[in-house]
Amino acid sequence: MAGQRPRIPVSIITGFLGAGKTTLLNHLLRQRQDVPNVVIENEFGSVGIDGALVRQYSNEVYEVSNGCICCSLDDELFDILAELAREEEAPGHLFIEATGIADSGSLAATFLRPDIRKRFELRPVICVVDSTNITEQLSSTQEAGQQIASADVLVLNKTGLATTEALQAAAQAVKRANPLARIIQSADGRISATELDLPRVRPEVPFVLPKAKPALPKVPVHTATVASSHTFDRPFDLSKIKHVLSVSLMLYAKQIFRVKGIVQSHDGQWHLLQSTGKQVEITPLAPGAGAGPSTIVVIGQGVKEEAVARLLRQGLA
Ligand SMILES: Nc1nc2c(ncn2[C@@H]2O[C@H](COP(=O)(O)OP(=O)(O)OP(=O)(O)O)[C@@H](O)[C@H]2O)c(=O)[nH]1
Predict the structure, then answer these.
(1) Domain 8-197 homologous superfamily, CATH
(2) Is the beta carbon of 307 within 6 A of some atom in ligand 1?
(3) pLDDT of res. 285
(4) The CATH homologous superfamily of the domain defined by 225-313
(5) pLDDT by residue (tens digit) across 46-86?
(6) CobW C-terminal domain: from which residue to which, for each copy (predicted)?
(7) 275: Cβ below 6 Å to ligand 1?
(8) Can you give the pLDDT at residue 199?
(9) Is the distance from the beta carbon of residue 274 to the nearest atom of ligand 1 less than 6 Å?
(10) Would you list the domain boundaries of the chain?
(11) Are the CB atoms for 201 and 283 separated by under 8 Å?
(12) Residue-by-residue DSSP string for 36-62
């Protein structure tokens, strides 16, 4: 990697499943249309839904849907970084949206390696927090706390949905987990892109490369959280699938973290189906946006593939 060229600024967007990372990223991309940007979208589960949602405002999108980027740090991410560093016209900004369960600390540490730092400059790590669900997420998962602890900016999102008390409780909880970070509030991920240019809160600890390459674990570290992906050739009855999922999210709130899919209804229209917390939301996609079989991914702990398939089949038309 050449040393003299200006370094490529890198923004890592992290936050628990459904917190609003893609929404916030889209908002930032819209504000930064003047610089050619590249997005690396990492999704847990094999369906690249977020990539399709950010493509409109980005010059280039790399999708890493084969597990969590923080678990395969020696492979795919380095290949993409090497490719970007070689490009004749380097991107003006690189955005990385991590999965909702990523260990963003290890991801950020990648950019402190001397070889990577020559061409990339890590900007503040942004952690998006769902203010209505964070207290629950902190008590039931490890990942939510890790993400908050390793961020420079904590965005308390979904303020419009949270009561004043919930917002205060969320602010206290995140401050306990990370007293150093800047805390800002947002609705629909609307934060100013000037956040991208502020200095990091964490000092850049020099990273000393070990002499021998350490043996990295080849198995994902998030062994407890699994993504179960399902495809269906038959169309869905939207009110049935919404009902089935709403009931399941009530009954298995501690097990099911996120549902996300692109489904076709019996009139041929395609829809984005998703849950955050206990809410299920179905929004029509633009004409021509969907194709192939309907696909639904359910992410959670102790989620049994066959049980989920049985459940989802109840929502078919
Ligand atoms: N009411 C409300 N909804 C929001 C807000 N921010 C995001 N959402 C919605 O929350 C849902 C999840 O948002 P995403 O941006 O997809 O969340 P994410 O963190 O990228 O999700 P994963 O990639 O699955 O982890 C979507 O339906 C958004 O429209 C907000 O401030 N208020």
Answers:
(1) P-loop containing nucleotide triphosphate hydrolases (3.40.50.300)
(2) no
(3) 85
(4) CobW-like, C-terminal domain (3.30.1220.10)
(5) 555 666 666 677 778 888 766 666 665 557 888 899 999 98
(6) 225-316
(7) no
(8) 83
(9) yes
(10) 8-197, 225-313
(11) no
(12) -EEEEEE-SSS--HHHHHHGGG-SEEE
